[in-house]
Design brief:
Length: about 300
């Protein structure tokens, strides 16, 4: 059992560092222009991998000092990890959302601020009647780093939530968070125009936090770490992006995801039972995102 667990843990360490490496590479590139922010992003990107490595080292020490206790503890972790590994991930939905966001971002990237302003989240315009910006604005992005940052968060969080709660949940909550973030930007006093799906990503953060809180007595291994890392990301992005980041969109999206989690996450670890309704919601939300993306391209270049 001990050698098997160590092999599983070392594989988890390698996977964690493999996921951290692209973030750190992006941070190096970004640090050329923004050294203090790039360094911060790199440190945060490495944090989950460092924590996974530390857990592995602690587990090895436990097996040497108290093998019976380690066998009991790690046996539970292996069972839960095996269950999660057998659950279907987000699959084609993760790629579909990424392709949609990528197409809209690429199609609107060279229009300039004047052309993009008709589709971005502009609080003054929305208050004057441009309500469609609540749906089109979150699909636009300010640059390559912005869109890659959001999509990498989407791939990681979306797949985890699909395994925990069912495939029908992440896309629906992502779309809810996008609109909720845009609404928060509009209602925020003195809100500036903004773009990006950060409100949707923040909603996934809120959903993870709600799942951890609901399941805190029997939380799956790694969920508390994921909630802590998400909180660290939120704080670091807010500090590093002062004056640039749309804090209202992050707060609005996080609140929407948290509320959805408290309403939908079951009291014990396991997938949401009414998964069919969530799958229907996913198709409806994705169709709405496709329509919003087409509208954004048409508005920018129309």
């Amino acid at each position: 059992m001990g050698s098997r667990n160590r092999r599983l843990e070392m594989r988890a360490v390698r996977e964690a560092w493999a996921l951290a490496s692209p973030w750190m590479a992006l941070s190096v590139l970004y640090a050329i222009r923004h050294p203090e922010v790039g360094l911060l992003v790199g440190l945060i990107a490495a944090a989950p991998a460092v924590m996974q490595t530390w857990d592995c080292l602690r587990s090895r020490r436990r097996w040497r000092m108290a093998p019976q206790q380690a066998a009991r503890r790690d046996g539970i972790r292996v069972r839960v990890a095996t269950w999660l590994g057998g659950r279907p991930g987000l699959g084609r939905w993760s790629v579909a959302v990424a392709v949609l966001v990528g197409i809209v971002t690429a199609a609107t990237a060279f229009a300039g601020d004047a052309g993009r302003r008709v589709a971005m989240v502009d609080p003054a315009a929305i208050r004057a009647g441009a309500w469609w910006q609540l749906a089109t604005g979150p699909l636009l992005h300010a640059g390559l780093f912005h869109v890659v940052f959001n999509l990498m968060a989407w791939f990681g969080l979306g797949d985890l939530l699909a395994r925990l709660l069912g495939r029908g949940v992440p896309v629906a909550v992502l779309g809810l968070g996008m609109v909720a973030g845009a609404c928060a930007t509009t209602l925020w006093d003195g809100g500036r125009p903004s773009v990006g799906m950060s409100g949707g990503v923040s909603a996934l953060f809120g959903l993870v936090a709600a799942a951890w809180w609901r399941w805190r007595a029997a939380s799956p291994p790694g969920l508390a770490r994921m909630a802590a890392i998400n909180a660290l990301w939120m704080v670091a992005i807010s500090v590093a992006g002062a004056g640039i980041v749309d804090h209202a969109a992050h707060a609005g999206g996080f609140a929407a995801g948290l509320l959805a989690g408290f309403l939908a996450v079951p009291p014990a670890p396991g997938p949401i039972l009414a998964d069919r309704g969530w799958r229907i919601a996913t198709w409806i939300v994705f169709a709405g995102l496709v329509a919003a993306g087409a509208a954004a391209i048409a508005l920018v270049w129309g």
